[in-house]
Amino acid sequence: MLPQTVERKPETVIWVIGYKSMLGAELSALFLKLRMPHIISDANTDVTDIESLWAFVKTQEKQEKKIDWIINCTGYPADKAENNSDSCRAVNSAGPANIAKIAKRLRAKFIHISTDSVFDGEGIYSEELCGPRPYRESDETSPTGVIGAAKRDGERGARKNSSHLTYIIRTSWLYGSCGGNFVSNMLQLMKEQDAVFVDDRRRASPTWTYDLALAIAVLIRASNDGENIPSGIYHYTNDGDATQLEFARKIYALGRKFGLLTRDCAINPGDGAELSVRTAEPGYFVLDKRKIRSALHIKLRMWDSSLASYMKYLLPKEKDPEDAEEDKLLAISEKYPDSDLARLEERLEKIHSPTPGTARE
Q1: Are 69 and 85 in contact (CB under 8 A)?
Q2: Taking CA 263 as the corner, what is the angle to CA 259 and CA 269, rounded to the nearest 5 degrees?
Q3: Which of 1, 67, 141, 331 is most deeply buried (CB count within 10 A of its CB)?
Q4: Domains and CATH numbers, the chain
Q5: Are the C-beta atoms of 151 and 118 separated by less than 8 Å?
């Protein structure tokens, strides 16, 4: 009697596109820590070329990997957008539409990261607050800049091509361990100068990439476990809000507290012309997070509390390994102690963990 052939099921994985971005690197590190199987791509996939994306999918299928989730962490740099509008639209508008087409063909769920800049910053007046209220997901978008318009069109392209499988998460003022951002730029300037000038005409919510990555992990695990997490647009930032001037002053205070800064530096209101990251258009860009709180049953930390946690562990205790990219990602994940998972740990424990093992590119 011939032995029975056991059919091997393809391994289900998450595809992180743009893993070298701040959020992409944070997600990959967290997925390693949580043993969530994933594959990664960056320069080897061109989101503006659907054939490039499809070729990558084919290589994974040959390795018997089934892509169940796609997360788009790519984006054209905001400080280059105004002078390179065609390139900005190609990455931020055409890119998400192409990925959505791939997701629809694979029947994979698609998480696309967008921005608060899809709004005009004029705010919507609330009599109860006697001022502007946070923007809701249902509010009309009306971007004023190139980056906001491209991101708005990217949202539309993603929803048009894979509406029932697409989650759009708008966020703001991301900072994290990988890549340049407002926090790293401010710390550098504060180390070198006696005074820095920061724009105080824009109000939004600073957001740690680690916190956003945790929320995305909850979304994926909950959905995989059969919970009904409706597709659509969600807002996620850390709680509370600040102007960039208030943000900068908190960075300075925490920098002195944790020994990251050792000299005096005045933080003054101004146009911020010396910043290497362009200051975005002025206005009110605070996002309402009630929808994602309700859908995922999670709590959001205040922005200054998250900033303190980030800066406390900003300087690694040990040098990152220099040889392997995976070791570097593991070093990122291990830099934050397990206690930082506590606020979402209970939520994650209620969701069944996937089979241990991590698929890599």
Answers
A1: no
A2: 105
A3: 67
A4: 11-180+203-242+283-349 (3.40.50.720)
A5: yes
- Residue among 20, 144, 8, 7 at smallest CA distance from 82: 144
d(CA 25, CA 360): 13
d(CA 5, CA 24): 39
Residue type, 312: K
Token pair for 112: 């696309």
Which residue, among 238, 241, 240, has the nearest Cα to 215 in the 3D structure? 238
pTM score: 0.86
Other Cβ atoms closer than 10 A to 36: 23
- Residues near 134 by Cβ (< 8 Å), separated by ≥ 6? 241, 286, 287, 288, 289
Helix axes 303-312 and 209-224, enclosed angle (nearest 10): 110
Cβ partners under 8 Å of residue 11, min gap 6? 37, 64, 65, 66, 357, 359
The predicted-structure confidence for 143-179, as pLDDT tens digits, reads as follows 999 999 999 999 999 999 877 899 999 999 999 988 7
The angle formed by the CA atoms of residues 103, 107 and 213, to the nearest 5 degrees, is: 60
Cα separation, 261 vs 158, whole angstroms: 43
Indicate if the pLDDT at residue 183 is higher than 70.
yes
Angle at 238 between CA 233 and CA 239, to 5 degrees: 100
Hey, which residues does 69 pair with through a beta bridge? Answer: 14, 109
Distance separating alpha carbons of residues 298 and 351, to the nearest angstrom: 13
Cβ atoms of 330 and 28 within 8 Å: the answer is: no
